[in-house]
Amino acid sequence: MIPHFDSPVIHLYGPIAIHMFGVLVAMGILVGARWTRKRGAQLGYSEEKVASMITTTLVCGFIFAHIFDVFAYQTSQKPTLIEILNPFGGLSSFGGFIGALGGMFFWCWKNQEPFMPYADSLGYGLSIGWMFGRLGCFSAHDHPGKFTEFFLGVHYPDGVRHDLGLDEALWAAGIALIFWLLARKNRPLGLYVTALSLAYLAAGRLDGVLQVDGLQSVDVAAGALVATLAGARVTAADGGPWLRPDALTDGTGIAAGRPAVHRLLVAR
Predict the structure, then answer these.
(1) How many domains does the chain have?
(2) How far apart are CA 254 and CA 251, in angstroms?
(3) Which domain holds residue 67?
(4) Spatial separation of the C-alpha atoms in residues 242 and 188, rounded to whole Å
């Protein structure tokens, strides 16, 4: 079992302090941005454009992460203007994800750039960045799970529990390692963001995944298998079998999700 611990805090001035959570999030941003630029370069996009997309995505992500945290978690009453504007008032990873996705859509629309290459680059970088972010959640112990006897359970004051920050950090680390190995060769457009989405569908973080841009069965086989084992319905984007032994290199795409969601995806 892992003992419960309090992360060190460095107090600078007044309410301003450096927390382990913030240090790990900053490391995730730096490493994730580097991986994102690397994938963008593989796809033939300039570092300046990819860096601009990353900046917009991060700004929108952090703004919405804080606003979502204030309205969803911090108070049952109408928040004050000070609470809304206080950048040290808390962050929500779910809100940050929504804000970052919206920021990327906005950047691509404003700059008249195709969405998929930048989404794929960001998916590649997000794998390692999310690992650091979830390690930050583990350092703060703000996502206690169910009681467990698992050897990686954390000994909270009321008993041994799963720490969902640690669990997801380990999941993200595995994905990042696979992506790092895959990146030794050029991979088709959309592979990383689709594989990441399928992995988080299997983990219960997403309801559905639809990719219609021509990925082959061999490209999505591992992710499709993991999603299938987790209980998702997985087919080609047109609703047919996703794995066709006589057509492994056909660009069939993929549709995956819970049965009700899957029906909506293939009936688009």
Answers:
(1) 2
(2) 9
(3) 2-187
(4) 17
